[in-house]
Amino acid sequence: xxxxxxxxxxxxxxxxxxxxxxxxxxxxxxxxxxxxxxxxxxxxxxxxxxxxxxxxxxxxxxxxxxxxxxxxxxxxxxxxxxxxxxxxxxxxxxxxxxxxxxxxxxxxxxxxxxxxxxxxxxxxxxxxxxxxxxxxxxxxxxxxxxxxxxxxxxxxxxxxxxxxxxxxxxxxxxxxxxxxxxxxxxxxxxxxxxxxxxxxxxxxxxxxxxxxxxxxxxxxxxxxxxxxxxxxxxxxxxxxxxxxxxxxxxxxxxxxxxxxxxxxxxxxxxxxxxxxxxxxxxxxxxxxxxxxxxxxxxxxxxxxxxxxxxxxxxxxxxxxxxxxxxxxxxxxxxxxxxxxxxxxxxxxxxxxxxxxxxxxxxxxxxxxxxxxxxxxxxxxxxxxxxxxxxxxxxxxxxxxxxxxxxxxxxxxxxxxxxxxxxxxxxxxxxxxxxxx
Length: 436
Description:
Layout: H1 2-5, E1 8-12, E2 18-23, E3 29-36, H2 50-57, H3 67-75, E4 80-85, E5 90-97, H4 101-114, H5 119-137, H6 140-153, H7 166-171, H8 174-184, E6 190-196, H9 200-206, E7 240-244, E8 250-257, H10 265-277, H11 283-291, E9 295-304, E10 309-317, H12 322-338, H13 343-360, H14 364-378, H15 384-393, H16 396-408, E11 413-418, H17 423-429, E12 434-435
Parallel strand pairs: 2-6, 7-11, 7-12
Antiparallel strand pairs: 1-2, 3-5, 3-6, 4-5, 8-10, 8-11, 9-10
C-alpha cells in the first residue's frame, strides 16, 4: 500500500487549479483529464442541457486550431480524445503515448482556455445534439432511466436529462454558452488528473501556464456553492408510475434511495449491487432470466452523488410478465432484510468486486478517473489497496443493515415504460401503479 500511495501527488496552483498525478513507469501510455465541477445539477431552469452542449463545443475550435485540426493532431499519434457529461461534472480526457504528453497538455489547455464558440459550428452541433436526443427517444432502456430520474428528483438538477430536451436545446444561444462557460470553467473549479509514465514535477511544469493567474473573462474565486447553481438534493419521491410509450417490451426501473458517494456504505451498496444484479451469477439474473425466462436483460446499479444516491434495478420484459418480475424483485430484496448472507456468499461477491477494481486499476485511464473522482467527492486520495481493505472489512450484517435502512425511508419508487397496460395486468397492479 505504501509503495502505491507514494506514486500519487497533488498540487494546487496559485489560481486554484488542482493538479493530481499518479506515476506508473510500467506503462508507455498516459491518460490526462480536465474535470470541471459542473453538470446537470448546476444548470438553471432555462439551461437544461447546457453542460452537455458546452462539452460538444469545446471540440469545435480555438484561436489556433479548428475542429479538424484538433481531431487530426490526436489521430496522427494514435491517441484518443473524448469527453462526457455527468450530473455533477464534465470531463475531457486524452490517452496518448508518453512521448506525446506535450501535445496532450497543449490541446487540453487550449480548449479549456481559448475555445471560440463559433456561431456556425454551434448551429451544426445543435443539430447533432438534437439527433442524439432523438436516438435516446428511440432507445427505451436509456429513456426509462432519464424519465426515472426526472420523476424521483422532480425539478431539481439531478433529475434533468443530461442531453437536455428538444425545446431547451433549440432555445440555447451563444451568449448562454459563454456565460455558463465563464462561470464554471475557471481554475478553482477544475481538476487536472494525469496517470501513466510521467512525473509530478514534469506535469507541474507543463501545466504551469494553466495555473497562472485568472483565466480570461472568468470571475475571481470565492463564489459559494449556491452561486454555482448547487442546491441540496431533495428527498427521493416514492411512488409508482406508468409512462405510455409504443414499444415491443415493457421497461421497468425499481429503485430506492441509496448511499451518497462519501458514505462508507457506498462499498456495502456496491457489494449489494454485485449480489442482486451485477452479472450472470447474480440473484436477480438467475431468478428472473435463468429460472423463469422472464427477461433477456436484468441488472442493478448504484448511482451515488455528493448528497444523494439511488440504488436501482432494471428489467425489460413482456406485458404479462410485469407482476411476476416485480414480485421476484420484492422477494429478493425482502429476503436480504430478513436473512443475512453467509460468509461464503459474501466472500464470493467481495472477490468479484475486488477483481473488477484491481483489473480496472491496470489501466491508466481508469486510474486517472479514480483519483479525480476521489478528489472531487472526498477531497482525498484513495488507493486501490485502501478500497480492498474497506471491502474486506464488510460483514454480512452490513448488507442487511443497508437494505433495511434503504427500505425504512419509505416505499420504493417504480417506473414502468411501455404500451398501455392490458386489463389483466392493470388489475393485478392496481392500486400501486399510477398512469402518467
